[in-house]
Amino acid sequence: MEYIGGEPEPGCLFCRALADPEAELVVDRPPGALLLLNKFPYNSGHVLVAPAAHKGDLTDLDMQETAQLMAAVQLTLRVLRQELRPEGFNVGVNLGRVAGAGVPDHVHFHVVPRWNGDTNFMPVLAEVKVVNEHLTRTAEKLRQAFAAAH
Ligand SMILES: [Zn+2]
Questions:
Q1: What is the pTM of this model?
Q2: CATH number of the domain located at residue range(s) 13-149 in this protein
Q3: How far does the centroid of ligand 1 lie from the alpha carbon of residue 24, in Å?
Q4: Ligand 1 centroid to residue 75 C-alpha, Å
Q5: What are the b/e assignments for 27-36, b being 16+ CB within 10 Å?
Q6: 148: which of 42, 74, 98, 137 is 20 to 30 A away, CA to CA?
Q7: Ligand 1: centre distance to CA 8 (Å)
Q8: Span 84-108, pLDDT tens digits
Q9: β-bridge partners, 89
């Protein structure tokens, strides 16, 4: 595994997944990036897109890392659009704990597919368990879709 720049962190969710070829919920490993299903999704198909480098801020990424990360976001949008047929997406980055970053030391995009009428967040919270039961199956389905998209 090649870490460009940032050092691998054993306690870091993304670095652990990068180092573990069997890591569950990893759906693809495009150049310089990692695509991981969020264990606590806001919605079905909520993918985290992280650079391979353990860096905490978008401004820490060099041009190649930035380009590879954005290409991975584009790939994610294309595959999720094809597989899940959402009507829209939220794509965003939380920088810093105060902004809601769960892993503040390793920057990552959230790509959240949206459907009309999915905006009630109480049911979303209540459904986290239900979604999780399907998470492994969703991961398997998306792994195949990403593999086919290469
Ligand atoms: Zn990391």
A1: 0.83
A2: 3.30.428.10
A3: 16
A4: 21
A5: bbbbebbbbb
A6: 42
A7: 6
A8: 999 999 999 999 888 888 888 999 9
A9: 113
